[in-house]
Amino acid sequence: LHPNNACTDFKLFELAGKLLAKCLYDTIIYGPSLVNIHFSRSFYKQMLDIPVHYSDFSQDDPQYFTSKIKYILDNPINDAGLDLFFVEEEQASSDGQALAFREIEIKPDGKNVPVTD
């Protein structure tokens, strides 16, 4: 859902994809005992270019959904003390080794606009 834009070496991702494809292919040819894999609903939606909704996480990762998303939905944001603003933090590598974070404003002047109910 959230790729790291600072990563530029995609050879390992390509290798992982080829290994997974080979395992899935062999499973179809030789039988279902080789790989028992199930993709998440949000993964299928991304492959089909369908927007992912926060409710998809209730089946993808029930613990994350219950501890984070459901908490935010069920409780007033103003009283939760979460200090949420309309910004997103992104990891950026400035010199190839040190990781730095930069804020991306989701809406104009988002760093000064708190999230409210």
Structural commentary:
The protein is an alpha+beta fold and 117 residues long. Helices cover 41% and strands 12% of the residues. It has helices at residues 11-30, 41-47, 57-60, 62-74, 77-80, and strands spanning 87-93, 99-105. It has a two-stranded antiparallel ribbon with strand order 1-2.
Question: How is the topology of this model organized?
Answer:
Elements: H1 11-30, H2 41-47, H3 57-60, H4 62-74, H5 77-80, E1 87-93, E2 99-105
Tally of individual helices: 5
Distance between the termini: 25 Å
Q: Report the helical percentage.
A: 40-55%
- Point out poorly predicted stretches: none
Mean pLDDT: 77
The tally of beta strands, per DSSP, is 2
Cα-based radius of gyration, to the nearest Å: 19 Å
- Main sheet: which strands, in order across? 1-2
In short:
The protein has 117 residues and is of the alpha+beta class. The protein has helices at 11-30, 41-47, 57-60, 62-74, 77-80, and strands spanning 87-93, 99-105.
Structural features:
alpha+beta, two-stranded antiparallel sheet, 41% helix
